[in-house]
Design a protein that fits this description.
The protein has about 130 residues and is of the alpha/beta class. The chain is built from six helices and four strands. Strand 1, helix 4 and strand 2 form a beta-alpha-beta unit. The protein is elongated.
Length: about 130
């Protein structure tokens, strides 16, 4: 079988990666070192929204905090809208927010923080930041 995609110019491969779903972009990173570099330099550009509910591991379970952290390490600098599901520690939320410095909307779904912790999280960020608890 001939691999036509690998023979494309890097800008073309990067453009393809930009239009793939998150999970597919991660898979493309694992093809070889060249594609990993392209994914990191081109594939994560333009990803403005991150919803942890959209991603499941191979067993169909929600991603754990380590996988969410890995994804936000790659693209968090450009994420403007962040939706996090079932995060149990306020410290984990703080760490994830630090990876998304321009996030202006954050929805925390199914969290068990008391109101004092949530108020503290609000004061840490810009006044335009919203927390939706569902």
């Amino acid at each position: 079988m001939v691999d036509y995609i690998s023979s494309l110019p890097e800008l073309c491969i990067g453009s393809i990666m930009q239009h793939l779903p998150w999970r597919e972009c991660i898979g493309m990173e694992q093809v070889n070192k060249r594609w990993r570099r392209l994914a990191l330099t081109h594939g994560w550009i333009g990803r403005r929204e991150f919803d942890s509910c959209d991603y499941r591991n191979r067993g169909g379970q929600q991603l754990d905090i380590a996988h969410i952290t890995m994804l936000l390490d790659r693209c968090g600098r450009q994420v403007e809208s962040l939706r996090l599901f079932h995060i149990r520690s306020p410290f984990e939320v703080i760490d994830l927010l630090d990876k998304c410095p321009i996030a202006s909307k954050v929805d925390l779904i199914d969290v068990e923080f008391d109101s004092a912790v949530l108020d503290h999280l609000r004061t840490m960020r810009a006044t335009g930041l919203r927390y939706g608890l569902k």
